[in-house]
Description:
By secondary structure, this protein is mainly alpha-helical. It contains two helices and no strands.
Amino acid sequence: MEAKIEMVGEFQYAENAELSVETFGRVNGPAIIFPYIREHLSNMSLKAGIPPIFLPPINFVRLAEEQKGG
């Protein structure tokens, strides 16, 4: 089984922000949007009458640290 969901987030970035745009785009942006993707996929599968699809939570900070180190 395969599912494809595309979501777009629009964020405002302050010039004096502590995080770089790259860090926000790699860590914080996905961390904000991912719960909505998880909910959408589980609701969509339930409405389709198939067993619900539950994506596990992801720690985007740890994921970014692991990718940077590896």
